[in-house]
Design goal:
The structure holds 2 protein chains of 2 kinds. Chain A has 11 helices and 2 strands, in the order ααααββααααααα. By secondary structure, chain A is mostly helical. Chain A has a domain of about 230 residues. Chain A has a two-stranded antiparallel ribbon. The longest helix of chain A has about 40 residues. Chain A is globular. By secondary structure, chain B is of the alpha/beta class. Chain B has a 6-stranded mixed beta sheet with strand order 6-7-8-3-9-10, with helices on both faces. A 4-stranded antiparallel beta sheet of chain B has the order 2-1-4-5, with helices on one face. In chain B, helix 4 packs across helix 6 and helix 6 packs parallel to helix 7. Chain B is globular. Classes of the chains: A mainly alpha, B alpha/beta.
Chain lengths: ~325, ~230
């Protein structure tokens, strides 16, 4: 093992670590919503994937509107910031609406009802996204007649290009993922620990009935959490535009849901800190897999396989996840 | 008009008929004990008042306003506090956060802490400690403190002495006596002596029905009138 590591040299290893951190940032944004919603409401939200998809397409449209191809300097970053805000707010509104109109009716019912409902919502939203995309491209489900411009090129010029940081060559999008991931971790942490709603969320995650009996309208808290979780899913979806491992089709969200679920389960269902730790571990596993598969074995699926190995090992050694407790979810 | 009026409530868990037409009143500044063997519906009566387990039939009025059909948070906001059996602390939240969660939005947080810490100084010492690490007696005090800071006019107190050492029971009893000077209390308590000491009136429940009621001054813990319905 040591020989294997030495073979790459410190530069390649450090680059892999930083890329792992970027991947971890992406996983945190992908999985935070899932873990918050499960922790508080005990709902496994399968509609999360559809929110990711809508985030991808809304993000792409936002870029077309606000940015121009290969925008350099600040001219690339300001529109991107605008797109993130637009996507977060848009998806937060959609998520709140889905919770308020549909999911709310099923609290207190068996989990399978909620899984079926959110799965149904996911299917409907994905089909709507497909119809919408086809209307614009004049294509069929498999073939776009007039392909969209490549949204990835509408990001800052440094996305997809290597930036040299302290002698290391790092893709600009990786640095952005680290930055936004850190902002999300800090933001969610401060929200949970410093605000009244955060306090209600933590109280409700432990005992929603008692919280309600203290005068906390737990349904409103549920709507807020569902909204924030969906907004984060949307931002994660926008980032997928620059991920070469994902195909930009309406199935992109379902594809990204898999690593998100792995991160949530490995971290421990419903614990935000666990999700952050698991995202870091999974990020490093993934990028180490990329390093090995591009340099040692010719096996492109190795990174994904390492994620599944991580999941399986966790489930065998510590079924509650790294920081999970025995009981989670109030329902 | 009483502060709390429960009229002919019928409450079910699934198909099990738990409360079969319970009626009771609690007046302002009154402490009323709800007595009875295990499983006769005392906790269910409290859950029914709070609308945690709404009745299928009957009325629950608080300050003349109908509570049936309201959400539990709505009942709580109107001034009904709950100090449940086994305390139900938020164990991963600190003592301070547990109190904070119980203070209605818009209320003075500083005054709430003052009330809580004046009544239970030990809670101030443990302020930053996770509630789950408190002793049983301290948890009970925190549970009562949560009820106190909630701007409540009435507290539903369920088995406050359960699982506590005798000396601690005396402390909790004393705390409840002080609290009852401020608010009306409906008290479920297996320790008959404590219940009769604290309460002005009592109701006895059996098989989901009120079978006796009266002034606590008129009975003593060993009287046949009480033991008939309370001994196993």
């Amino acid at each position: 093992m040591t020989g294997l590591l030495l073979q790459f040299g410190p530069t390649a290893l450090l680059e892999t670590l930083i890329q792992g951190l970027g991947q971890a940032g992406l996983y945190v944004i992908l999985a935070s919503g899932l873990t918050l919603i499960f922790g508080l409401m005990g709902v496994l939200n399968f509609a999360h994937g559809a929110f990711i998809t809508i985030g991808t397409y809304l993000g792409a449209m936002g870029l077309f509107l606000l940015s121009s191809p290969n925008a350099a300097g600040v001219g690339g970053f300001l529109p991107l910031l605008g797109v993130f805000v637009l996507v977060f707010v848009g998806l937060m509104a959609l998520g709140s609406l889905v919770e308020f109109g549909l999911v709310r009716r099923l609290y207190g019912r068996p989990p399978i009802d909620q899984i079926l409902l959110t799965f149904g919502v996911a299917t409907v939203l994905q089909q709507l996204a497909e119809i919408f995309v086809n209307l614009f491209t004049g294509g069929t489900s498999n073939q776009a007649q007039t392909p969209w411009p490549e949204p990835a090129t509408y990001g800052p010029a440094v996305f997809g290009e290597n930036v040299t940081v302290a002698g290391l060559a790092i893709d600009g999008v990786v640095l952005m993922e680290i930055l936004v991931g850190a902002v999300v971790v800090a933001g969610v942490y401060l929200f949970l620990t410093r605000t009244r709603y955060g306090l209600y969320i933590r109280a409700g995650s432990e005992d929603d009935e008692m919280a309600e009996a203290l005068g906390i309208d737990i349904r409103r808290v549920f709507t807020v959490v569902f909204g924030i979780g969906s907004g984060l899913a949307g931002v994660a979806g926008t980032f997928l535009i620059w991920q070469s491992t994902y195909d930009v089709t309406v199935a992109i969200g379902a594809q990204a849901l898999l690593p998100a679920f792995i991160v949530v389960v490995v971290g421990g269902l419903g614990t935000f800190t666990g999700t952050v730790v698991a995202a870091a571990v999974a990020g490093f596993f993934f990028e180490f897999g990329v390093l090995l598969s591009t340099n040692v074995f010719d096996f492109v699926s190795l990174p994904q396989m390492l994620l599944f190995i991580l999941l399986v090992v966790t489930l065998i050694v510590r079924p509650t996840g790294i920081l999970g407790e025995e009981e989670v979810g109030g329902h | 008009m009483s502060l709390l009026e429960v009229r002919d409530v019928h409450t079910y868990y699934g198909e099990s008929h738990i409360l079969e037409g319970v009626s009771l009143d609690v007046d302002t500044d009154e402490v009323v004990a709800l007595l009875g063997r295990n499983g006769v519906g005392k906790t269910t009566t409290m859950r029914t008042i709070l609308q945690l387990t709404p009745p299928r039939k009957g009325r629950v009025r608080f300050r003349g306003e109908e509570m049936v059909g309201k959400r539990t948070s709505g009942v709580a906001k109107r001034g009904v506090g709950w100090i449940p059996e086994d305390r139900r602390m938020f164990g991963n939240l600190t003592v301070e956060e547990n109190i904070r969660a119980a203070v209605p939005s818009g209320s003075d947080m500083g005054a709430a802490f003052e009330t809580a810490f004046e009544t239970f100084p030990i809670l101030e010492e443990r302020r930053q400690q996770d509630a789950g690490t408190l002793s049983g007696g301290q948890q009970q005090m925190l549970a009562i403190a949560r009820g106190l800071v909630g701007d409540n006019e009435m507290l539903l107190v369920d088995e406050p002495s359960e699982g506590l050492a005798p000396q601690i029971v005396a402390d909790v009893g004393e705390a409840l006596a002080r609290v009852s000077n401020e608010v009306a209390v409906l008290l479920v308590e297996q320790n008959l002596r404590l219940a009769l000491d604290l309460a002005d009136r009592f109701y006895v429940l059996d098989h989901g029905q009120v079978v006796d009621e009266g002034d606590t001054a008129a009975v003593d813990p060993g009287s046949e009138r009480l033991t008939r319905h309370l001994s196993a």
